[in-house]
Amino acid sequence: MSDPITVVFPLYDRMTQLDFTGPWQVLRRLPGAEVLAASLTGAPVEADGLVFDGLTALTAIPRCDVLCLPGGYGMIEVMANDAFLAEIRRLAEGAQAITSVCTGSLILAAAGLLVGRRAASHWAWRDHLALFGAIPDAGRVVHDGRFVTGGGVTAGIDFALTLAADLAGPAHAQAIQLGLEYAPAPPFEAGRPELAPPAVLAQVQAANAAANRERVAAVERIGAAFRARLEAA
Fold it and tell me: Angle of helix 170-179 relative to helix 155-168, nearest 10 degrees?
């Protein structure tokens, strides 16, 4: 990577902070990278009890090379926010890489950017991508042209290292990995539905169903409106 590169993370209230901070930690170490954290107006955002301040307004960013959407429960509000989605579409237009972590892919999908594209997401939300014409993919990191999407939360680090290799070469990405001592050795083999003990999976699925009932309904309403607009176009 010889030319400077601008990476933009559009942030919003109630995102999952690790969806943002994991990739940020990696991509900040790219040579010549300018990495910007932004919100729609530049106002602070709250995520998992942390407040991120000193943000750039999305409207003030003329362009970017890499656009990266984190996920989180606040995705519902921004998926229905026309002004936010308009900025995502504008910045995506000239981006070299359009990317996301976790349910950030649902925001890209709601912006109309993933129609006919394979995309990853958190396992509990992945199938909802189909509501927006995307193709759900169970991969931890999924490439489809200039679209690169990561799975749930911790997959953001794998995603960012993969993206770093795309942008700066495998050797530089491996140097970043070594510097961060990223050598995962989880204490349990329970990080994916197919690996978790059945009782643990059932417990998490039941908790998700109870907590996310209204959110799922909201995503389905947004998806129905999206399809109606496509059919009317």
Answer: 140
Is 102 designated active site? Answer: yes
228 is a domain residue: no
Active site residue: 26, 85, 102, 142, which one? 102
Q: In what order do the strands lie in the sheet with 97-101?
A: 56-57, 33-39, 5-10, 66-69, 97-101, 147-150, 141-144
Average pLDDT over residues 52-67: 98
Instruction: Domain of residue 183: give its range.
Output: 5-187
Q: How many residues does the chain have?
A: 233
Residue 212 CA to residue 190 CA, distance in Å, equals 21
Is there a contact between 52 and 37 (Cβ–Cβ < 8 Å)?
Answer: yes
Cβ atoms < 10 Å from Cβ of 9: 28
Report if residue 212 sits inside a domain.
no
- What does the pLDDT read at residue 2? 56
Number of domains in the chain: 1
% of the chain beyond a pLDDT of 70: 99
Residue 19 lies in a domain: yes
Question: pLDDT (tens digit, 9 = 90+) per residue, 165-175?
Answer: 999 999 999 99
Task: With respect to residue 85, please indicate whether it lies within any of the assigned structural domains.
Answer: yes
What CATH number corresponds to the domain at position 54? 3.40.50.880
pTM score, whole prediction: 0.96
- Structure token pair of residue 24: 């940020």
Cβ atoms of 146 and 98 within 8 Å: the answer is yes
pLDDT higher than 90, residue 83: yes
